[in-house]
């Protein structure tokens, strides 16, 4: 993903970018422009601002007069500049080519550009909502209710039931990881139990990222779980000579998880991950 338009310089570059967009289920919006075109220059900053607003949409630019990009403009019969084309994958037909145009806009029309982007832009990946078994869905609902009421042990029990029925749900593992994290953070949880829950939280967060590697929130859970392995309580059972290195490794793992979360998220989740990453950087600087 890029927060700036990608300059396409060749047919090979074009094909590679479209294939990557199709693989990730992303919309592609293309600005066909020319260096001599005044309206193209006027709308270029606006187009770039939209690219920054919609990081999960691929914004491309193609110079219609470029020696290695002319064939692209010719293929799509570009005759007016600028021309904006929208390519969108067809979720009901995985074999469909992403090179099929779903909308065209001719001319430097900021409002028209805003309209087509709002209509077709891709957003951050989110896991599918439902679970395959009604019993699993019911257990998840009970777990969510218990969690909302601060009954984290009950939440763990319900999420565990749901996981047994739907073991491929990354959401359930992420939910149980968060319940473990809340128990670890609670002084009402006995010390030895808090210590035993740390690896469980990490394991569940790892499972969530394995199952839903494109889900930013799962990576936030991973970071939260790893950070709890670096606090004084977690380090108390480790030889003092090895604590600094162990803490550093845990912080570096959290740093990597948060970088993934930021890359894959938007809005509140992205902001939360960014704040956490700033705090991790401060901790690493003193480790």
TrEMBL record:
Record's protein name: DnaJ (Hsp40), subfamily C, member 8
This protein's UniProt keywords: Disulfide bond, TPR repeat
Signal peptide residues on this chain, from the entry's feature table: none
Pfam family, one: TPR_11
Keyword Disulfide bond in record: yes
TPR repeats: 136-169
Organism: Marasmiellus scandens
Domain (Thioredoxin): residue spans on this chain: 1-122
Protein encoded by which gene: DNAJC8
Record PROSITE patterns: THIOREDOXIN_1, THIOREDOXIN_2, TPR
InterPro entries attached to this UniProt entry: Thioredoxin-like_sf, Thioredoxin_CS, Thioredoxin_domain, TPR-like_helical_dom_sf, TPR_rpt
SMART domains from the UniProt entry: TPR
């Amino acid at each position: 993903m890029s927060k700036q338009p990608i300059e396409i310089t060749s047919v090979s570059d074009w094909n590679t970018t479209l294939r990557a967009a199709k693989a990730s289920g992303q919309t592609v919006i293309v600005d066909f422009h020319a260096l001599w075109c005044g309206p193209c220059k006027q709308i270029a900053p606006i187009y770039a601002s939209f690219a920054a607003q919609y990081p999960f949409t691929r914004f491309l630019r193609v110079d219609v007069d470029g020696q290695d990009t002319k064939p692209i403009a010719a293929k799509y019969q570009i005759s007016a500049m600028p021309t904006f084309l929208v390519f969108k994958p067809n979720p009901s037909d995985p074999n469909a080519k992403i090179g099929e145009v779903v909308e065209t806009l001719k001319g430097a029309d900021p409002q028209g550009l805003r309209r087509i982007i709002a209509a077709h832009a891709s957003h951050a990946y989110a896991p599918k909502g439902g679970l395959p078994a009604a019993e699993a869905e019911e257990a998840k609902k009970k777990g969510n209710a218990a969690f909302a009421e601060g009954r984290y042990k009950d939440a763990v029990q319900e999420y565990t039931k749901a996981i047994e029925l739907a073991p491929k749900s990354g959401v359930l593992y992420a939910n149980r990881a968060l319940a473990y994290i809340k128990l670890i953070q609670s002084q009402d949880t006995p010390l030895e139990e808090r210590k035993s829950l740390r690896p469980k939280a990490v394991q569940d967060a790892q499972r969530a990222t394995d199952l839903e590697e494109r889900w930013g929130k799962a990576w936030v859970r991973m970071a939260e779980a790893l950070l709890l392995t670096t606090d004084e309580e977690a380090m108390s059972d480790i030889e003092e000579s090895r604590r600094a290195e162990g803490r550093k490794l845990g912080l570096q793992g959290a740093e990597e998880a948060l970088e993934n979360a930021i890359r894959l998220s938007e809005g509140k989740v992205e902001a939360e991950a960014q704040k956490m990453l700033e705090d991790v950087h401060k901790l690493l600087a003193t480790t």
